[in-house]
Write a structure and sequence with these properties.
CATH architecture of the domain at 563-772: 4-Layer Sandwich
Strand content: 5-15%
Radius of gyration: 38 Å
CATH topology of the domain at 563-772: Phosphatase 2c, domain 1
Helix content: 55-70%
Number of helices: 24
Number of strands: 15
Structural class: alpha+beta
């Protein structure tokens, strides 16, 4: 339990979320959801008393705990909402449907997609036929009953697709079927909510339907707004049991809102309210006119309050995936699934063999020292039988008393042995020399064994680190890309107006950065038309990058970060050395993340320079590949510890800065303090972690998180700048610095340190200043 709790805590600190991995807990949560969904759908009545949606949900849930939960929810709410007499009909039908599913669960026919829908319709027909026969067969009620039977069977088919899409084949029409099925399920829920009345005659179901139509029209345009309006209106008409008024009203509102959807949220909301006011005049019942207007106004207010980030995530619901995009999406899904399976395999391997490398409680028993000594010296001695047979206990106690001081001193002396033993032994001098030889061999064996177990443990931990890296990569590959359909359409129209044939794709990266890619031929003219591209996308851009192939070209456009960083590196080698043992680097990834790195190799000169350069080269390779700093540093630490020499212990100072958000993190392995100036105050970030490779595998870097903004300064320095305890002059100089050039500040710090003459060592200073990116002048 403690180990699982620790894993959940570590995952929360690293990822910002906790993933529940207990199958029982997840199954209980699923059953609870099915219970409430079944109960909600049981309350969805149409035609003045028919409720087929709950029966359809029981059929879709099938056998097992999932079906039983749906059955209980439908039965309970049927009796609660309809009373015993009418509710008994639906309880009986639900029980029959579940019984058939339970009985045929292991058969081949049960797996047919139309089996349970047919059973739902048949059981609805059987139980309802009894009630229908009391009032006659040639009445309008017969038409309503026939519709109920058809809806029970049809909805069971679509509900199955909606609640378990993973079980379907990956056929070409899967996306459309899922969308339609989910829409039908939502319609049933809206029918149930339509009876929930709020003050002023407002219906909760109509309000939810109104909001859905507004969001669909504003984000998906005319077609999506009209389609959603017809679907939501049909649900409300079924709940009301009257003329198709809501279908016309909602479709009209969705159509008008879709026309002005490109004008922004405010225009879309106003158009929706005006369309709602116009349809209010058509209402047959005067009691509905004001509630309809109120519902339109409330829905518009909620829509205006919804954050844009949330609406962007919903945009994927309103996009139609083209045939050429579908294979790429399937390939990403397959690659992500295989990476996740590989990660799980490495994690299971780590858990299976990780416990094998714990130190043994009795590692290489020291008794073997005297066993081997006796076999060499005492075998031919005349007193061998006396010492090792007749007086065995006395001999054992004497040697047992001597082994402790010998191990502590790492060598034996005559004083370590009792007098009665050393005086009686005929070859004591030879016995002591052989014992010391065996003691030395024993200590070497113990050291080798410990080192071997540590190396094996380090390799084992690499499996865990590799599992984490693969899981993160799988999540990134398999994650839904946040496409920007409006910006993409605007860019496509601009390309068409410029006479350039190309296919554009616009989406948001995980950091929130807008990225556009244009594929086609003869894209060079776009390199000189950045202003037109910025106007089409609505954001400032960095300099475009053109990639060329034999038959194609790709132009990559990246949104310019709101923060701009100026970085400078200055260094001075130790007196008498030809090269500095420090190494510094800085680079920016395509996602707008800036990395600052500084490593101080152990010692000085060429060897230290080689080690620090290798450390930064490996770290840069990891970070450019998209691996997060902490797992990258842990992997580096394990690799350095396996080399087993002191020269492999290097300090690592790493800073990660998001130039879109200003969020920053400092990671340290034995590094000197980092200085951060915000306003006129300078803070000092220190660490207690040893250098990378010093403590063996399993060590973690010290991590400090902070928020930076325009005007802030950061100073990374090696320990040659100051000894860490007497660095008041560093903080004072940084706090009072009035210049704007990071290079000047770095040189000034080095000159002051050189003039002080203390702490003679390689000195390196990496200075950074953040500022807001200047806006381009209009025109």
């Amino acid at each position: 339990m403690k180990q699982r709790a620790g894993q959940m805590r570590r995952h929360f600190l690293e990822q910002g979320a906790v993933v529940l991995q207990r199958p029982a807990l997840m199954k209980a949560l699923e059953c609870l959801i099915r219970f409430f969904l079944g109960g909600t759908l049981a309350g969805a009545e149409i035609f003045g008393g028919h409720a087929p949606f709950g029966l359809a949900f029981v059929a879709a849930s099938g056998a097992g705990l999932s079906g039983l939960s749906a059955l209980l929810g439908v039965s309970f709410c049927s009796l609660l909402f309809m009373g015993f007499t009418r509710g008994l009909k639906y309880v009986a039908a639900s029980v029959l449907i579940f019984s058939v599913a339970f009985s045929f669960y292991d058969t081949r026919i049960y797996k047919k997609p139309f089996f349970m829908p047919l059973i739902a319709g048949a059981m609805t027909l059987c139980t309802g036929f009894v009630y229908l026969s009391d009032g006659g067969f040639f009445t309008p009620e017969t038409v309503f009953f026939a519709t109920e039977v058809l809806l029970a069977g049809g909805c069971a088919y679509f509900y199955k697709i909606a609640i378990s899409p993973g079980s379907l084949e990956m056929e070409e029409s899967r996306e459309l079927r899922q969308t339609v099925s989910m829409l039908i399920l939502i319609m049933g829920i809206l029918v149930a909510l339509a009876t929930v009345t709020l003050p002023a005659g407002i219906s909760l179901g109509r309000l939810a339907a109104t909001l859905a139509v507004l969001v669909a029209a504003a984000r998906g345009g005319i077609g999506m707004g009209s389609a959603t309006g017809i679907s939501a209106g049909l649900a409300m008409d079924l709940a009301g049991g009257g003329t198709p008024f809501y279908s016309v009203a909602y479709a009209f509102s969705g159509l008008i809102t879709g026309v002005v959807s490109r004008q922004g949220k405010a225009f879309a909301s106003i158009a929706f309210v005006l369309a709602g006011a116009l349809t209010m005049v058509w209402a047959m019942e005067e009691s509905l006119r004001l509630p309809l207007l109120y519902e339109s106004m409330i829905a518009a207010g909620i829509f205006l309050l919804l954050p844009e980030e949330m609406l962007r995530k919903w945009d994927v619901l309103f996009q139609t995936e083209t045939s050429d995009e579908r294979p790429a999406a399937k390939a990403r899904e397959l690659a992500a699934r295989r990476l996740e399976q590989s990660a799980a395999a490495f994690r299971e391997l780590y858990e299976a063999i990780g416990t094998s490398f714990a130190p043994r409680s009795n590692d290489n028993d020291a008794a073997v020292i005297f066993d081997r000594t006796a076999s060499r010296i005492c075998r031919k001695c005349a007193l061998a039988s006396v010492c090792w047979e007749k007086d065995y206990v006395t001999t054992f106690n004497a040697l047992n008393d001597a082994v402790g001081p010998m191990l502590k001193r790492r060598r034996g002396t005559p004083e370590d042995f009792p007098k009665h033993f050393s005086s009686r032994c005929l070859y004591f001098t030879r016995f002591l020399a052989a014992a010391n030889e065996e003691l030395t061999a024993f200590l070497y064996r113990r050291q080798f064994g410990n080192r071997l177990r540590e190396s094996r443990r380090a390799v084992c931990l690499q499996y865990a680190d590799l599992s984490g890296i693969l899981s993160e990569t799988a999540a990134e590959i398999g994650g839904d890309m946040s496409f920007e359909p409006r910006a993409e359409k605007s860019l496509q129209l601009r390309l068409k107006g410029m006479g350039i044939k190309g296919r554009a794709m616009v989406f948001l990266e995980p950091t929130g950065r807008l990225r556009a890619e244009i594929e086609g031929k003869d894209l060079e003219p776009l390199l000189k038309n950045t202003a037109d591209l910025e106007e089409a996308l609505g954001v400032p851009l960095e300099a475009p990058r053109l990639q060329k192939g034999e038959l194609w070209q790709r132009l990559i456009l990246l949104e310019a970060e709101p923060l701009r960083a100026e970085v400078a590196v200055e260094s001075a080698r130790k007196r008498g050395e030809a090269i500095s043992g420090d190494c510094a680097a800085h680079f920016k990834n395509d996602d707008g993340t800036l990395y600052l790195l500084l490593s101080d190799g152990m010692g000085s000169g060429e060897g230290a320079a080689r080690e620090s350069a290798m450390t930064l080269r490996l770290m840069e390779r990891f970070l450019r590949a998209g691996i997060e700093p902490e797992p990258a540093l842990k992997t580096l630490n394990s690799a350095l510890s396996l080399r087993g020499d002191e020269a492999s212990c290097n300090t690592v100072d790493l800073m990660k800065i998001g130039l879109f958000s200003g969020d920053a993190s400092v990671y340290k392995f034995g590094a000197a303090p980092t200085y951060v100036r915000k306003g006129g105050r300078v803070s000092r970030i220190t660490c207690s972690a040893m250098p990378a490779g010093a403590l063996g595998s399993g060590a973690s870097p010290d991590v400090t998180r902070l928020r930076l903004g325009a005007g802030d300064w950061v100073i990374l320095a090696s320990d040659g700048l100051s000894d860490g305890a007497q660095d008041e002059w560093v903080r004072s100089l940084v706090a009072s610095w009035e210049g704007e050039d990071p290079g000047e500040l770095a040189r000034c710090l080095l000159e002051r340190a050189q003039a002080s003459g203390t702490n003679e060592d390689d000195r390196t200073v990496l200075a950074l200043r953040l500022e807001n990116r200047p806006r381009k002048a209009a025109g």
